[in-house]
Every structure is written in C-alpha cells, then in structure tokens.
C-alpha cells in the first residue's frame, strides 16, 4: 500500500477539553498503524486544513471546528474519502443527534428541543420532567456549563436563560435516567467494542458522572448494547465512535450521548489497530 497517501488532521486543542493529550495519543497511534500497513500519513492541524494545505484524496480526521467540518463535507462531495465523515461529525451535535436517534427508534431518553429564550416551566411540568439535563443544542460540549443537571423546572428555566445570555439559541432537555452510567467505544463494522463504568475509574471530563454515582453492577444484555451502538453509528454516519448510556435497574439500555472519534483513553493500544483496519477497509471499498 505504499502508493496510498493519507492526510491526518488532528483535533484543535480547544475542542479536546481535558483530553488534549489523550486525543492526540489515539490519533498518532492510528497513524502509526496505518504506516505499518505501508500507507504514507501526513499529519496536519485544523488550521493547516482550513488554510488549504491538505491535497491528499484520503482524509482521516478528528476535526471539530465548524469551518473544518464544512470543508470536510465539501471534500466528500468532490469524491474525497473522509473518515469520520464531515456529515457524521455534524450529526453528533446535540440537536441533530437527538433527532436522528429518536427518529431511528434508537433507545434514548425522553427529550425536548427548545429555544433558550422561551418559557419552558409549564412544558416541563406537563411532561413530568423533574430532574433533567440541559445541553447546548448547536454543538458538542466544550465547557462544563454546556451540559447542566437541574433538579426542577424553575432551575431549568434559569439555566436556559444563562444559555441564552451566552448566545446559545437552542437546547436539548433530556429526562434524567436513574441507573448505572456506562461509557463505550466502538468501530462501525467491527467486532471491537469496549465498555466500562467511568465513575468507578475516575474517568471524567466535567465531573457529571457523579450524578449517577458509583455503579451498582446492574445486569444488561451486552450484545444488545453493541447492536444499538452500531445502529447509532450507521444512522449518524460515524465510523469511529464512543459515547455514554444508562442501564436502568430493569436492565434497559438507553444511549445518552454519542461522539465522533473520542479519545479511547482506557483502551487506546487495543483499539488503534482496529480503527486503522476500519480505515483500510474503507479505502479498499472505495477502490
């Protein structure tokens, strides 16, 4: 595969909150495995990509800048192979993700999508929302305040007002689910799947894992979890993914978050060759 040239575009540091080193590490590990298969991988920053320095017709990326995402989409429209797809990355922004998962009947918390400048107290009360999560709808979470746990509708209204003052126009409100919080990593079309309890291992970006607290070891169907995660990856058009789900006391599984190419921090060495193989498979299918 010596003739295969790949552009690798790393994630800008502003979009790796508390995980800059981990995001860089998984990206570099995958690039090294691709080189071991004979590929030439040239690594660029998002700024270099935006500046027009990328000429390769295969792009492997962890982009999160809006300008980068739109450029990726333009590249795809022109026939460039892009993993993860720029369209898939956009699909993982909160409002789009919520609509796509619910529209494809993928288990997800009951949710409302609202304007941040509207009155929602009565609507929340009518739907029986008490404890819930408010999440910015327009993008991925970049700050702790982009995802907020609230205990009642009055507090929810206050948080929405704060979002509005910050210039965030849309928000997703998820009903809070009681149960074990599980983090997962997977690769579309691959048997590779890794899950763990983030709170128990002290794995956190913003400390929100403390709301559900220490896992109870609730029983669940792992094969079903793998299936709904694969279904989500197909619906969202994301090959390399991760996210979070809640296991209810009855064993029900619901996806509460889904991300394009996360850090794979607890399983980086094991996951990297599988991600590289996924990319190689995409290259072969393209040919």
Characterization of the model:
The mean pLDDT is 92. Helix content is 37%, strand content 23%. The protein folds into 3 domains: 5-92 and 267-286, Rossmann fold; 110-175, Dna Ligase, domain 1 (2-Layer Sandwich), CATH 3.30.1490.20; 180-263, D-amino Acid Aminotransferase, Chain A, domain 1, CATH 3.30.470.20. It is an alpha/beta fold and 287 residues long. The protein has helices at 20-36, 46-50, 66-77, 86-91, 94-103, 121-126, 153-165, 198-201, 222-236, 268-286; strands spanning 5-9, 40-44, 58-61, 81-83, 111-115, 132-136, 147-150, 170-175, 180-187, 193-196, 240-247, 253-260. Helix 1 (20-36) crosses helix 10. It is globular and about 60 Å long.
CATH fold label of the largest domain: Rossmann fold
Mean of all residue-level pLDDT scores: 92
Shape type: globular
Strand residue percentage: 15-25%
In this structure, how is the largest beta sheet organized? Answer: 4 strands, parallel
CATH top level of the largest domain is Alpha Beta
Report the uncertain regions. Answer: none
Determine the number of helices (DSSP H or I, runs of at least 4 residues). Answer: 10
Q: Give, in order, the helices and strands.
A: EHEHEHEHHEHEEHEEEHHEEH
Beta strand count = 12
Derived from helix and strand composition plus strand pairing, the structural class reads alpha/beta
Strand ordering within the main sheet: 2-1-3-4
């Amino acid at each position: 595969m010596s003739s295969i040239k790949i552009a690798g575009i790393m994630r800008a540091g502003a979009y790796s909150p508390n995980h800059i080193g981990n995001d860089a590490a998984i990206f570099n590990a995958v690039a090294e495995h691709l080189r071991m298969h004979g590929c030439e991988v040239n690594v660029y920053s998002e700024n270099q990509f935006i500046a027009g320095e990328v000429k390769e017709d295969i792009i492997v990326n962890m982009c999160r800048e809006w300008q980068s995402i739109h450029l990726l989409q333009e590249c795809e429209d022109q026939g460039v192979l892009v993993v993860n797809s720029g369209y898939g990355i956009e699909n993982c922004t909160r409002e789009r993700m919520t609509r796509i998962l619910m529209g494809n009947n993928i288990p997800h918390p009951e949710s409302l999508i609202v304007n941040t400048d509207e009155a929602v107290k009565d609507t929340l009360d009518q739907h029986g929302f008490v404890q819930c999560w408010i999440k910015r709808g327009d993008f991925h979470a970049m700050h702790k305040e982009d995802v907020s746990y609230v205990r009642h509708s009055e507090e929810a209204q206050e948080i929405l007002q704060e979002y509005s003052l910050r210039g965030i126009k849309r928000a997703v409100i998820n009903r809070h689910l009681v149960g074990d919080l599980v983090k997962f990593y997977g690769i579309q079309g691959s048997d590779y799947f890794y899950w763990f309890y983030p709170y128990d291992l002290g794995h956190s970006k913003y400390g929100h894992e403390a709301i559900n607290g220490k896992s109870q070891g609730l029983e669940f169907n792992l094969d079903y979890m793998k299936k709904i995660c694969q279904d989500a990856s197909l619906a969202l058009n994301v090959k390399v993914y991760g996210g979070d789900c809640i296991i209810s006391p009855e064993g029900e599984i619901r996806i509460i978050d889904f991300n394009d190419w996360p850090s794979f921090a607890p399983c980086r060495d094991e996951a990297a060759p599988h991600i590289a193989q996924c990319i190689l498979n995409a290259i072969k299918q393209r040919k």
